[in-house]
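Example 9 (inverse folding). The structure is encoded as follows.
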């Protein structure tokens, strides 16, 4: 996955991804043209275009990859204050939204990457579409309660049940995860 975003509002400008299955590859690209108010979506299989669409943009949309950067920035701007929002998002050619409450409360979050609980802000929300790996419906997540707003952990609903995504290793140079107070 590659994603290029507007550095001011963290909305996606261009995203592409490649998925490989044996000798086959699928390439998808999204060009967000805010001036023309369209998303130019294209799908290729083994280098041959098999589908395309011009998706109208009635508002500024983010995409699956840039969504994570968008919520980190939103948490930073909210400065620890509980905030509820609806984030417009597009996945393939489907326009939808994610209802999200950030900074619900300070909480302790335990992840494999650290031997101590990290001070984190809890968030929760509802995904109104089916995304990558079948992610859909309600979710809960935690981001570090410091200026880095590092995503630490999430519990998500998927088609077959639920799953947990958790920070296994941290490689951010100079970042020390904030220790939760006992």
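The amino acid assigned to each position is listed next.
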């Amino acid at each position: 996955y590659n994603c290029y975003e507007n550095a001011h509002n963290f909305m996606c400008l261009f995203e592409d991804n490649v998925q490989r299955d044996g000798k086959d590859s699928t390439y998808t690209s999204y060009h967000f043209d805010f001036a023309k108010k369209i998303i130019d979506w294209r799908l290729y299989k083994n280098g041959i275009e098999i589908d395309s669409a011009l998706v109208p943009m009635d508002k500024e949309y983010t995409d699956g990859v840039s969504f994570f950067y968008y919520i980190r920035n939103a948490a930073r701007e909210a400065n620890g204050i509980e905030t509820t929002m609806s984030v417009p998002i597009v996945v393939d050619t489907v326009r939808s939204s994610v209802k999200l409450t950030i900074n619900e409360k300070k909480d302790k979050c335990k992840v494999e990457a650290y031997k101590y609980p990290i001070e984190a802000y809890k968030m929760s929300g509802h995904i109104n579409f089916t995304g990558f790996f079948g992610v859909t419906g309600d979710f809960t997540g935690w981001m570090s309660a410091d200026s880095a707003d590092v995503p630490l952990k999430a519990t998500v609903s998927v088609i077959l049940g639920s799953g947990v995504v958790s920070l296994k290793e941290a490689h951010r140079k100079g970042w020390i995860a904030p220790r939760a107070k006992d």
